[in-house]
Design goal:
By secondary structure, this protein is an alpha/beta fold. It has a single domain, classed as Spore Coat Polysaccharide Biosynthesis Protein SpsA, Chain A (Alpha-Beta Complex). The chain is 40% helix and 21% strand. It has helices at residues 16-27, 47-54, 70-80, 99-109, 140-145, 161-164, 176-186, 215-227, 232-236, 239-256, 260-267, and strands spanning 6-12, 34-40, 60-64, 85-88, 94-95, 115-123, 129-133, 155-158, 191-202. A hairpin with a 5-residue loop joins strand 6 (115-123) and strand 7 (129-133). Helix 1 (16-27) packs parallel to helix 2 (47-54). It is globular and about 55 Å long. This is Glycosyltransferase 2-like domain-containing protein. InterPro entries: Glyco_trans_2-like, Glycosyltransf_2, Nucleotide-diphossugar_trans.
Length: 268
């Protein structure tokens, strides 16, 4: 089959400070063929000049024009993409070296998978590691009451999966990833977790999910939680107890998967 195996889709706006790390992280991947689709919202901070300087160095396609926010940009990028698999990596985040090789190996070992995902690290504005997120097998309970089961910067979706569950919700500007992952959990999909680190999520002052959350973000979180289906025991038990139970379940999964380092990280 012609065309790239993977399309990395990157929404971007006024992120020139971090965008080059993102571009290089895709350009320097080895293994399967990859294209990079960057959808810029009309930045005026030097992002366009940076994109122009990279467009002849690897398979990079980009547009820079006003849009209706990150979710709109993502759907636009997914429509532009030609790869058989998709990966969504925001412009201030990046792929880790070897991520595509790890994905390709997991794909060969799990040919029926619709979603393949790994773990990710948290980095600061300078790209220094400041934390780790060890993911586990998919779990609605853990997703609802503790932490979403994966992160977009370490997840690969078979072509058509995102469109098949309805695309990115353009009414959401903060919780679109968590809401998408919930719909994936609700769908009849084959998902494979790779016990390795594939992406980096950058925490910095300008990130919209860093610091004290604005009311718009809190409202999205409340709406998201109210939309989850809950069993009778879940409706009866207090939230704090459910969080403890979800934390324990994730720890159990790490134990079953033979990952003592993940247990130590959870308890640190």
């Amino acid at each position: 089959m012609s065309g790239p195996l993977v399309s990395v889709v990157t929404p971007s706006y006024e992120q020139a400070e971090f965008l080059e790390d993102n571009l290089r992280s895709v350009m320097e991947q080895t293994g399967p063929s990859v294209e990079h689709v960057v959808v810029d919202g009309g930045s005026t901070d030097g992002s366009v000049a940076l994109l122009e300087s990279y467009e002849d160095r690897y398979d990079l396609r980009w547009v820079s024009e006003p849009d209706d926010g990150q979710s709109d940009a993502l759907n636009k990028g997914i429509e532009m993409a030609t790869g058989r698999w998709l990966c969504w990596v925001n412009s201030d985040d990046y792929l880790l070296p070897g991520a595509l090789d790890t994905f390709a190996e997991a794909r060969r070992d799990n040919p029926d998978s619709d979603v393949i995902y790994g773990d990710f690290v948290f980095v600061d504005a300078d790209g220094e590691e400041i934390g780790r997120k060890y993911n586990t097998r998919p779990s609605r309970f853990v997703h609802k009451h503790y932490y979403q089961f994966t992160g977009n910067h370490s997840t690969f979706f078979r072509r058509g999966v995102i469109e098949g569950v309805g695309g990115i919700d353009e009414d959401l500007q903060y919780t679109m990833d968590t809401e998408l992952f919930w719909r994936l959990l609700e769908a009849d999909l084959e998902m494979t977790h790779v016990p390795g680190f594939l992406g980096a999520r950058r925490l910095h002052e300008a990130a919209k999910t860093t610091g004290e959350p604005p009311e718009a973000r809190l409202a999205e979180i409340r709406a998201l939680k109210s939309g989850y289906d809950h069993t009778v025991p879940e409706r009866a038990l207090p939230d704090k107890l459910l969080t403890v139970a979800a934390f324990a379940l994730q720890g159990t999964y790490h134990t079953l998967d033979g990952r003592p380092e993940a247990i130590r990280h959870m308890l640190a």
